[in-house]
Amino acid sequence: MTQETPAKVFSLLGTALFSMAFLFAVTLSNASFTQVYNPLPNPLAPANVMAMVDNVSHDYAMFVQTDLVNPGQQSYAMAADNIAFIGQNAGPQLMSMTGISGLLSLRTQ
Q1: What is the pTM (predicted TM-score) of this model?
Q2: Beta-carbon neighbour count of residue 101 at 10 Å?
């Protein structure tokens, strides 16, 4: 018992922290052996847990929408507009240069 090993130190530290938290909770709730005057909120109650999960999932969905989906849509729209512009203005010249201008007449029929 005279040697201080990490297991002994951490077990004593954990016991001390648990007892301090217990005494703090008893003092905060003004509890006695017969009655609790100010009950402590239960953070692990199903209503609180589901509300927390709902808030976190909503925040994550808004992050994905703001940082990934919206910029992706804007980039795609700009690229599609540029490609369409190039296709409309340079398409006939490129088709005649490559010798496939007959396909253009088939497409318009």
Answers
A1: 0.38
A2: 13
**Contact status, residue 25 vs residue 40, Cβ threshold 8 Å:** yes
H/E/C letters for each residue in the chain? CCCCCHHHHHHHHHHHHHHHHHHHHHHHHCECCCCECCCCCCCCCHHHHHHHHHHHHHHHHHHHHHHHHHHHHHHHHHHHHHHHHHHHHHHHHHHHHHCCHHHHHHHHC
Q: What is the token pair recorded at 5?
A: 């090993």
pLDDT digits (tens, 9 = 90+) for 42-67: 877 877 778 878 888 999 999 999 98
Spatial CA neighbour of 38 closest among 27, 49, 48: 27
Burial status of residue 31 (CB atoms within 10 A of its CB: 0-12, 13-18, 19 or more): middle
